[in-house]
Amino acid sequence: FIGVLLFSISFYLPAQAQAPLWQDNFGDELTELTGCDDCTEMVNLPFPFPFNGVIYNMAYVGTNGCIQLGEEGSNGVDYDYWSYMEEFLSDDGQPLICPIETDWDLSAQNDGIGKVYYNNSGNPLIFTWVDVGTNQDTSTTSTFQLLIFSDGTIVSNLNGILNGPGENLIDDLDNGIIVGVTLSDFPFDGEPIVPGDPGPVDLSQGPF
Q1: CA atoms within 13 A on the CB side of 177
Q2: Of the candidates 11, 53, 9, 64, which has an alpha carbon nearest to the alpha carbon of residue 180?
Q3: What DSSP letter does each residue of 122-191 carry, written as one string?
Q4: Taking the chain, what is the end-to-end CA distance rounded to the nearest angstrom?
Q5: Which tens digits make up the pLDDT trace of 140-180?
Q6: Close Cβ partners of 107 (under 8 Å, ≥ 6 residues apart)
Q7: Closest by CA position to 194, among listed 207, 182, 176
Q8: What is the H or E stretch that residue 103 is in?
């Protein structure tokens, strides 16, 4: 229910099979993220990416499973948007695109796993998180991908989520999982948001 403008999510069963839009050419490793926890790396976009009426030429890629368009917000690309929904919805007006966000942790990963890649050689641009573990269990890993197209289309691919010995890992994650995108002009009023609580609804703008 978190997704605000999730254009497309590609799923394919069984869970470990390749998704229909999966891209095998991951591109280059984002080395500032390798072996890091709660980190971001800035990338230049080779084409102007239109989002909610604004053109973006750069993005920040986070280890926690999101990219942030334009400037990095004061909260960075955080790991606990589930608990602090107001940060997700209004991080200094800089929109977030999250194929699957949680407390991913690359600090204990090695031997070619637990890395983030970026392929900017064509259309779409490809962001891939490969075999990333979580802060609770670095041995149980996930692989997923974000594609953004020059016409503004956004696609998320999941290709092996939480593979490993851990059991009930989703239930054990302290801050849950966020999937979706935010609007850069979301009318957030600054009040804390409680997950599952819709809060007061202003019907003066009606109908919804």
Answers
A1: 13
A2: 9
A3: SSSEEEEEEEEEESS-TTSBEEEEEEE-TTS-EEEEE---SBSS-SSHHHH-TT--EEEE--TT----S-
A4: 16
A5: 889 999 999 999 999 999 888 776 666 556 656 666 788 88
A6: 35, 36, 37, 138
A7: 176
A8: none
Residue 8, token pair as written in the block:
């497309």
In whole numbers, what is the pLDDT of the chain averaged over residues? 77
Q: Hey, CA dihedral for 12, 104, 82, 101, is it positive or negative?
A: negative
Percentage, residues of the chain above pLDDT 90:
40
Phi, psi of 64 (to 5 degrees): -85, 10
Local confidence band at 32 (pLDDT 50, 70, 90 cut-offs): very high
Beta strands in 5-72 (DSSP E): 9-10, 28-29, 40-51, 54-62, 67-69
Q: How far is CA 110 from CA 107, 141, 146, in A?
A: 8, 12, 22
Amino acid making up residue 102: T
Q: Which two tokens stand for residue 153?
A: 């289309």
Tell me the sheet residues that pair with 37. Answer: 105
- Per-residue pLDDT band for 208 (boundaries 50, 70, 90) equals very low
